[in-house]
Amino acid sequence: MARKDLIDQTKSLITRETLVKDLHALGLKLGDHVIVHSSLSSIGWVAGGEIAVIQALMDTITVEGSIVMPAQTTHNTDPKYWENPPVPEEWWPSIRFMMPAYLPDITPTLGMGKIAEAFRSFPDVRRSLHPACSFTAWGKHTDWIVSHHAPDFPFGDHSPLAKLYDLDASILFIGTDYDSCTAMHLGESRAKDGRPIFEQGSAMLENGERVWKTYQQLEEYSNRFQDVGAAFEQLHHVHTGNIGQAACKVIKLRPLVDFTAQYFNDLSKQQNDSL
Predict the structure, then answer these.
(1) According to the UniProt entry, where is the signal peptide (predicted)?
(2) Which of 20, 178, 215, 273 could form a disulfide with 151 if both were Cys (CB 3.0 to 4.6 A apart)?
(3) Among the listed residues 128, 76, 72, the one whose alpha carbon sits nearest the alpha carbon of residue 102
(4) What is the pTM for the complete model shown?
């Protein structure tokens, strides 16, 4: 959205201070652990933009808690899977050979939004080492959350998502919804629905050398996440409100992950019973 259009559509000035008030009204507080999915433009025009939003989150949670954001780099994956847009097949070998190695301090995120991209460069923010599915974290448990992020099954039990589950963290949607909810991939990984496993690849550093390395990943059914979320909300409380002009939700991560796993187990059983 053009800047002028965003200003014209913003009803009153939004600042770091007003954002803190909105975050508190949503129930977020000092010492919480939260993974954030965000759309900056949905908030309206903010004095200070994405920087003010991040500062407001830090003011609210403080270093007694933890803020986590997805920092995925899906451009550093096997080009044979690229669809938006695809590239010619004859390019694939050269891309695998020439793609720069993932460097957590340098490699930009892709499709995560302006807030997540700015967050990764903030002081004391750390990033996990997965070359395609990394997470950034700030706060009390930063180093633990991002450490030992396994290459295989990057949203599974050896990922930052599993540590957020252990911390009984919350999920904050700022102008986003379940279709961007990375935590639900942990539920997929814990489902026993026999979903396919495929070989993915990325450029990374190994012993100081750039290599193209393959790892295993589960097929994801994120196109069903909105349906899962709608079913979840019929049984579980979701705190709703606004940050600026953005429609927001705060959801406990554990019950959503558990519900997602059960949803896909039940769906698999229904499909098998119909055969």
Answers:
(1) none
(2) 215
(3) 76
(4) 0.95
Going residue by residue through the chain, which has 275 residues, state the pLDDT in tens, using 9 for 90 and above. 678 888 888 889 999 999 999 999 999 999 999 999 999 999 999 999 999 999 999 999 999 999 999 999 999 999 999 998 999 999 999 999 999 999 999 999 999 999 999 999 999 999 999 999 999 999 999 999 999 999 999 999 999 999 999 999 999 999 999 999 999 999 999 999 999 999 999 999 999 999 999 999 999 999 999 999 999 999 999 999 999 999 999 999 999 999 999 999 999 988 888 76
**Following DSSP, what letter does each residue of 24-82 receive, concatenated?**
HHTT--TT-EEEEEE-HHHH--BTTHHHHHHHHHHHHH-TTSEEEEE---TTSS-GGG-
Domain coordinates of the chain in residue numbers? 3-273
Strand partners, 33: 66
Interaxial angle between packed helices 253-273 and 225-233, expressed in degrees from 0 to 180 and rounded to the nearest 10: 110
Q: In angstroms, what CA-CA distances link 44 with 7, 108, 195?
A: 7, 24, 40
